[in-house]
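[Q] Does anyone have a clean structure-token version of this?
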Amino acid sequence: MTIIQFQYILAVAQYKNFSIAAEKCFVTQPTLSMQVQRLEEELDVLIFDRAKKPIRITEVGEKILRQAESIVNESERIKSIIAQHKGFIGGKFHLGIIPTIAPTLLPMFLNNFIKKYPKVELKVEEMTTRECIRELNEGSLDVAIVATPLGEKNLIERFLYDEPFVAYIPNEKYHLQENQKIEVSDLNIKEMLMLQDGHCFRESVLNICQENGSLNRFRNNMIEIKSGSFETLIRLANEGMGMTLLPYLHTLDLNEGEKKNLHYFKEPSPAREISLLYHRNELKINIIDALYNVIAGVIRGAITFENLNIIDPILKRKGKK
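[A] Here you go.
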């Protein structure tokens, strides 16, 4: 058995097609097929049922693939040990990021990171917090950008920044003045537009509304609107369907008309903590440090809350890791 053979069967399992798997592995199909067959002959089992279209994994094949993935991941860690020893910043690196952060944060740092560290083979994938935790523990993900704290004993949370919540409330409907500051108690959960289940930002909104004692009125709604994007929530609010909360960075790209509907909170402002999340045994610390420094450098320039009196909570966390 060889690591190359394990890489080939993992590719076949991923793409359910020998031709595509061979292309992704940069070998010819006969070469890949021969190596997979040799592994099956050595083990005296079939890993794939080739009679099915698309190819299916056998019951024993599922077990073999799980072990093969673990072996391949561990072999990559040997390369990471050498890279760390030499101070080399490069190689394969898998980054997970939750959907409520990705659209605003990725464009801010990704291009800078790629240009600064061209030898890093970066793979970026949007996934839920739960998926990030699972893949970090399995070793198939190197680092994640998520909302914290999570309290996972095997994972390290490295603080990046605090991102305040901003209320998006159409002024005309709610008789508010432009730039008028509000309090958490001003939120009306019965008219709150929220992201759908599975988004941690939704849970944060529910927690905030619970604090002002209005959560128990939520189920009396005549209509419950949930969405997977902030853009949809903003448009619905513009149509008079209610109010919503947005993370601060998402408000930077709103048009001037929409920005008039933004309302910052009086102190203390509700906020979410954003951190890098990685396994305690992670060996690609050189790349994680580089990623942290690039993001931290960009974000501190972006989060400047002029005259809003909410910069202090961020600056006092500046040195936290």
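[Q] Thanks! Anything notable?
[A] The two ends are 42 Å apart (CA to CA).
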